[in-house]
Automatic annotation (TrEMBL):
Source organism: Kitasatospora aburaviensis
Example of a GO MF term: hydrolase activity
Keyword Nucleus belongs to the record: no
Pfam families, A to Z: Abhydrolase_3
Protein name: Alpha/beta hydrolase
Domain Alpha/beta hydrolase fold-3: 69-271
Alphabetized SUPFAM superfamilies for the sequence: alpha/beta-Hydrolases (SSF53474)
Amino acid sequence: MNPELEPFVPLVPVIDLADPLADRKYYAERAAMVPAPDTTGMEVEDRTVPADPPVPVRIYRPHGAQGAVVWMHGGSWAMGDLDTEHPWAARLAAATGVVVISVGYRLAPEHPFPAAFDDVYAVLAWTAEHAPELGIDPERIAVGGHSAGATLAAGVALRARDEQGPRIRFQLLNQPGLDDRWESWATGLAETLGGGHEHMASAWRHYVGSAPATPYAAPARAADLSGLPPAYIATAEFCPYRDVDITYALRLLRAGVPVELHQWAGTFHGSQAILSAEVSQRQIAELGAALRRALEE
């Protein structure tokens, strides 16, 4: 474990998702402890994307931005919203100069798959259709997210490819949960830290039920990864999804998709939120740098 992160390990909450309403409240309370971002020089606007049902979004528009990322929060598909993601979405916009469209997708278990997935795809399609109105270059639209949000990003990239939908320039996938199958998950400390496998199993049950997930829900199940957008994939050493994320990156490469893969030694799932740690600062900076490069080229 990274020595800067190790003192925080006993403080990592164990969330079993047995009571999603209580867990959401706790998740929001912890998110409120994150230092407020600086939004100087940035327009922040709440809008609603027409869909069935309508999808709330929060748009962060730095001065002079042209590219955009449709961005999804983490929270195991059962927690999180536009407010809990506000510190991170604003930081990403400030660091990249890119328009960040943060998506308030519906949460499980009240709204299981494909509710959140459909919400995200509707926002992606709306962004592409309304790019001129939003001041966005339609050829510079990315998708991305943390954890469950990164899973949604990878899933909509598959759907956009399959349906010849909106053109996606880039995938920014930070510690995505790409596989619902226990046998693909990393063991050791990753198996228990923060609830580990038990938490993940509960999250997947809430999201997809007891049946095996489809490739759009669990992208690692997709048989063909060719034709997908270039990707940046970040993994954490003590993250249950570490092995499947690395395998997914290799499969993308073998399918001819350009990939940057960074396996962060000594880190755990979500530890980049510990802003006092130098390694966390590097993780966040690299996410921004990867997105900026992809949309500037």
